[in-house]
Amino acid sequence: MLGWLAYLTVAVVWGSTYFAIALGLESFTPYGMVALRFSLSAVLALGLGRVRREAWPAAREVPHLLIVGALLLGGANALVSYAELHVSSGLAAVLGGLVPLWLAVFTMAKEPLGPKGWAGLVLGLAGVAVLVWPTQGLRLHGGGLAAMMLAPLLWSWGTLHGKQHVHGGGLMTNVGIQMSMAALMGLVVAPLSGGYLRGPVTHRALFAVAYLALFGSLLAFSAYIYLAKAWPPAKMGTYAYLNPLVAVLLGGLVLHEPFGPRGFLGMVIILAAVALVQLRPKAVVAEG
Fold first, then answer.
1. pLDDT digit string (tens) for 38-51?
2. 197 - beta bridge partners?
3. How far is CA 239 from the centre of its chain?
4. Rounded to whole angstroms, how far apart are CA atoms 167 and 159?
């Protein structure tokens, strides 16, 4: 039951964070938002870990926690924020749906892709092609699309790295260490990449960053780290099926982002491709 609760939290809350990132970018730069968001959530997570008297991870596992924080939060999450400067939150969420596909690719040594898996890879590329083909209504940008292609790869790689190398320490303590790494990256990179602000700080942007820190990071990321330990990658990764649905709905209703027939077709193709990879025979990867 706890696993399913964590799964639903990640699926729904992270679907809404694409929308919240778009709001936060009204005032903050991508790495400015990373610095603020993860500084706040890191302090809260480490504080909760102390209140709960959690064990600290072994010294040999701390570097791996920092690597995971750099790849997932300082890398992939920052790339998503950058991408949303140039593409809609709905399109970013659709391309984020490639996470389960990359998880399947990275674990294919233990569980070969097979005919359905390879068909899914080809179909996924076709879905991306449909999305990026010039069409009226979709905001297309080469750098933004490249960022959203790289982000799922880094996210999947970092997830599996943590699953393999981190076994001790309390949940909130480990999450706090990972978020501290992302906050440090934001504080260092932001001044070198345009500063912390893109414009006047609005109440809407501040609310969005607070939502990202409390719900997107502290709640949902903690649920994700728990889920990555409790479930096999192939099963856990399917949370990304639901993220685009939530993101497209919020982006269309609140931000009035266009998502025409071609965008809908691309989303369906990509999700079908991911399903082919995930639902292939013996798709469940054995625990390491």
1. 999 999 999 999 99
2. 28
3. 10
4. 13
